[in-house]
Amino acid sequence: MQVEDQPKLIASPNRCPVTGIGHEFNPVVDPYLAEPYAFWLGARLSVGCALVAFLAMTNAFAQQEVPTLRYDPPPNFYRSAIHPPDDYSSNEVNATVQVYPFRPFNGNIEQMFQKTLLREWIDPRYQETNVAGQPEFGLGSVRGAQVVLTARFAENIAGIPRQHMRMVIVSGGIAAIVDASANNMTTWQRALPALNVLGASLRVEAGAALPSVTEGPGPAGGKIAGLYMGTKPKYVVDLNRPVGYGKHVPALHYYLFSADGRVYRAYDTLTVPGGEVSRFDFDAAQRDDPVNSGRYTVKGNQLYIKMGDQPPEMITTAAPQGNRITIDTVLYIRQ
């Protein structure tokens, strides 16, 4: 068929003027995950639309609050205690998916993505080291997003092509990433039903302004202060297998809250001199382990915790009841 025989595509805010791809398209659900290559070949022509749409909408973002990427967790996957990112591993096969929060960027993110796959944004545990062949770039759609850039590629690990699907979800001058992978194509196919659930549920929502943690918890801090212990899965590298293999094992996990709004967390052990929280050196913890250091405040019956800063991890949960607090589905008990 000649090009002129094809129906004419009409450009609109919700549709690419080159290919006609619209918001109804989602590359992380069937049939594109199951057999994506035909789509990626055609969608490469449409990548230029992302930059056009992004540049047209960047100024409008300046008036908005920082959004939140919402989703339904993949079923039969368990969530790692190590975050950010939100990290899920299949209970059945060697497949994982990570959801990275929105973060600011400078420059042309489309060009950055095509040049580096934004590997520098990926947790070191999941960074690809040996991409096999040329990645296939395309466009996707997520409810509420302005631009969604996608890449499908394989990573050569000891001769086995580990499958990857990476999405960059753009809203103004910030972007989030969803990064799924499986150790081979058979595993990828088995993980698809769970990944479909997450992919179909992705949506960008306006973020509500969170209270500042710098003011501290006030009088409530005296009731919250203490060392809390729970049990969470901990990722352990398997040194007897090739790079990229590991497993999660149950491990003790602690949160230490001060009366004036400081917080620190750690696996396995957390030593408090003489059992007195006031004697713990939160400043030293901040210098040595900033990702696991932060501050908290209390508003009503909600506890707001800000951990790290590149980007910060925000935790919102119910304030402790008695000696118990639940954070990320884990029950912690004051010691």
What would you say this structure looks like, in words?
This protein is 18% helix and 37% strand. It is globular and about 55 Å long. It is α+β, with helices and mostly antiparallel strands and 335 residues long. The strands form 3 sheets. Strands 15-14-13-12-11-10-17-16 form an 8-stranded antiparallel sheet. It has a 7-stranded antiparallel sheet with strand order 2-3-4-8-7-6-5, sandwiched between helices. Strands 1-9 form a two-stranded antiparallel ribbon. It has helices spanning 37-43, 47-61, 109-116, 185-201, 220-224, 282-288, and strands spanning 68-70, 77-79, 86-90, 95-104, 131-139, 147-157, 160-171, 174-182, 203-205, 226-237, 246-257, 262-267, 293-299, 302-307, 313-318, 324-327, 330-334. The protein contains 6 helices and 17 strands.
Net shape: globular
Low-confidence stretches: 1-20, 36-64
Overall average residue pLDDT: 81
Q: Helical stretch count?
A: 6
The biggest sheet amounts to: 8 strands, antiparallel
Computed structural class: alpha+beta
In which range does the helix fraction lie? 10-25%
- Secondary-structure element series: HHEEEEHEEEEHEHEEEHEEEEE
Radius of gyration over C-alpha positions, nearest whole angstrom: 22 Å
Largest beta sheet: strand ordering: 15-14-13-12-11-10-17-16
Strand content: 35-45%
Distance between the termini: 73 Å
